[in-house]
Design a protein that fits this description.
By secondary structure, the protein is an alpha+beta fold. The chain contains 3 helices and 8 strands; from the N terminus they run αββββααββββ.
Length: 167
């Protein structure tokens, strides 16, 4: 795993902590990351956002990169997160909460993008996509390593996934 990948990951963790404390009223506790070896989501609901851009380095010159940021929740955690964010109670997946994860993903990525810019990254973000259903798969860019960061919170477990590839 490249040092740039590790450096690239930190702003997402910091941004997620900030967004969840502000918008969902809970603290996140990231656990030990691991490399993902398949495309199966660890949660039942996933928010997926792609990024591409350029890393300006002093020694090698500009390096193009592609990345993907994913937040996945088991249903019970997602319902609690959406309920806290929308200040209503949800116990089933429905239209009212279908975009809540995408909004969170967008806020986390936007905050991370600001910090990444300070580190020399300029990037474009896609619009977040939502995937729902037990055992769903996520299509990652070919040739990327995927790290999973399990996270615990008062609302339950969730998973942050990041993949990154320099071209």
């Amino acid at each position: 795993m490249s040092n740039n990948f590790i450096e690239f990951s930190k702003p997402f963790i910091d941004a997620a902590k900030n967004v969840f404390e502000t918008m969902v009223f809970t603290k996140l506790e990231p656990q030990k990351p691991f490399i993902k070896k398949d495309n199966v989501s660890r949660g039942d609901v996933s928010a997926v956002l792609g990024m591409s851009g350029v890393l300006k380095t002093g020694d090698k010159g500009p390096v193009e990169f592609k990345a993907m940021f994913v937040l996945s929740w088991p249903y019970e955690t997602y319902f609690k997160v959406a309920s806290a964010m929308l200040m209503a109670t949800y116990t089933t997946y429905c239209e009212e909460i279908s975009d809540a994860g995408g909004e969170i993903c967008n806020m986390v990525t936007g905050n991370a993008k600001r910090d990444l810019a300070v580190m020399g990254y300029s990037s474009n973000m896609s619009i977040p996509s939502m995937i729902e259903g037990a055992g769903h798969t996520i299509k990652y860019p070919p040739g990327t390593k995927i790290i999973v960061i399990p996270i615990t919170s008062a609302h339950g477990p969730m998973f942050m996934e990041l993949c990154y590839k320099e071209e």
